[in-house]
Amino acid sequence: MKTLEFTKQDRVLVTGATGFIGSRLAAALKSEGVKQRLFIRGESADSKDPYMQYSKGDLLTGSGLDDALEGIHTAFYLVHSMGGKNLFKNTEYADKDRNAADNFVKAADKAGVKRIIYLGGLGEARDELSEHLKSRMEIASILSSGTAAATFLRAAIIIGAGGASFEMLRYLVERLPVMVCPRWINTRIQPIAVNDVIAYLYGCLNNPETAGKAFDIGGPEIFTYKEMMQKYAEARGLRKRIVITVPFLTPHLSAYWVDMVTPVPSGLAHPLIEGLRNEVVCKDDSIDQLVKINKTRFADAVKLAFSEEKSGPGVTGW
Ligand SMILES: NC(=O)c1ccc[n+]([C@@H]2O[C@H](COP(=O)([O-])OP(=O)(O)OC[C@H]3O[C@@H](n4cnc5c(N)ncnc54)[C@H](OP(=O)(O)O)[C@@H]3O)[C@@H](O)[C@H]2O)c1
C-alpha cells in the first residue's frame, strides 16, 4: 500500500480536463497545491507554472499519451465519447470508448502509472442495463486490466451547472409547467452534488486504501425522477409541475422531445434517456469509511449550481 501512497512530490494526470467533472477537479487540485498535467485535445496553453502542465493528444488515436503519462503517479479518467447532433448515430460511442480506454491502459502500463481513478455510472449489472451504463462498466473493467490499481467510482445524475443530465433536468422543468413522461418517471435515482463528487475523487487520491476497489457514491436523498423534478421546481421557487404519465413514449421519441426543449445534443441525450429505465441507487456505502465528506442535500446542490453562473438557465457549453 505504501507505494500507492500519493505525496505532494507526485504528479497526477487529469483526462477530460475540459469537461464538466475534469475542469472542476483540476481547479480543486490546483487549490490544494497538487502537481498536475492536463490531457487535452484542443490547443494547449503554455504554462510556466511547474504545478500545472498541459499535454496535447487524443485517446482515440492514442497520440500524445506516452508524453502525457510520463512520470505520472495517478491518472484520473474522466472521459466519454457520447455527443453529436445525429439522433441515429448514437451507438458509435461504445466502440470509441472501448478503443480510448484500451489505448489509455496500455500507455499507463508502459509508463508505470501506479493508480487510475475513474468515474462512471451506477446501475446493477444483473438488471437489463442501457447501452450507456453497460459501456461505462466495460470501461471500468478495461481500466482495471492493466498494472495500475484502478478505483471505480459509480454515480447517478450529478447536480452542477453544465452537467449533461442536470441540464436536461433543468431545461425540462424550467420550461415545461406540464410534462408528458413515460414510465421511467417512477424509477428511483440518487443524485449527488458535483462538489461532493470532486471531494470523493480527491479523497480517493489521498487514501491508498481505495486503490483497486469500486465504490457507489450518492447524495443523502433518494427520489423517483418525478419527485426529483418537483424538488427541483421547489428549490427554484417554481410552481408544482403537472406530470402526466403515458405508456407509449419510446426513448427515441423522448430524445426528439429533449432535443426541442433543451440545448443538450441529441447524441448525448439519447443514450442518457435510454438509461432512465434503470434504477441508479447506491447499494454499498463502504466509501464513507474511507473518504469522509459532508453530503450536500439536493436542494442546496441545485442552488449551488445556479450560484455558479451569472445569467441563469441558458448558459451552457453547447
Ligand atoms: N455528468 C454526469 O451527470 C455524470 C454522472 C455520472 C458519471 N459521470 C462520468 O463522469 C465522467 C466525466 O463526464 P463529464 O460529465 O465531465 O463529461 P463531459 O463534460 O462531456 O467531458 C468529457 C471530456 O472528455 C474529453 N474527451 C472526449 N473524447 C476524448 C478523446 N478522444 N481524447 C481526449 N479527451 C476526450 C472531452 O474533451 P473535449 O473538450 O476535447 O471534447 C471532455 O473534456 C464520465 O466518465 C461520465 O460517465 C458523469
Overview of the structural elements:
With 318 residues, the protein is an alpha/beta fold. It has a domain at 2-156 and 192-218 and 281-294: NAD(P)-binding Rossmann-like Domain (Rossmann fold, 3-Layer(aba) Sandwich). The chain is 38% helix and 17% strand. The chain has 11 helices and 13 strands. It has helices spanning 20-31, 65-69, 92-111, 131-144, 164-175, 194-206, 225-235, 251-261, 266-274, 287-290, 298-307, and strands spanning 11-15, 35-40, 52-56, 74-77, 115-121, 149-155, 158-159, 178-181, 188-189, 192-193, 214-216, 223-224, 242-245. A 7-stranded parallel beta sheet has the order 3-2-1-4-5-6-11, with helices on both faces. Helix 4 links the parallel strand 5 and strand 6. The radius of gyration is 19 Å and the shape is globular. The chain starts with 10 loop residues before the first strand and ends in an 11-residue tail after the last helix. NADP nicotinamide-adenine-dinucleotide phosphate (NAP) binds at residues 15-22, 41-42, 58-60, 78-81, 100, 119-121, 136, 155, 157-158, 163-165.
Question: What is the secondary structure topology, with strand pairs?
Answer:
Elements: E1 11-15, H1 20-31, E2 35-40, E3 52-56, H2 65-69, E4 74-77, H3 92-111, E5 115-121, H4 131-144, E6 149-155, E7 158-159, H5 164-175, E8 178-181, E9 188-189, E10 192-193, H6 194-206, E11 214-216, E12 223-224, H7 225-235, E13 242-245, H8 251-261, H9 266-274, H10 287-290, H11 298-307
Parallel strand pairs: 1-2, 1-4, 2-3, 4-5, 5-6, 6-11, 7-10, 8-13
Antiparallel strand pairs: 9-12
Bound molecules: NADP nicotinamide-adenine-dinucleotide phosphate.
The site of NADP nicotinamide-adenine-dinucleotide phosphate has 28 residues, from helix 1, strand 5 and helix 5.
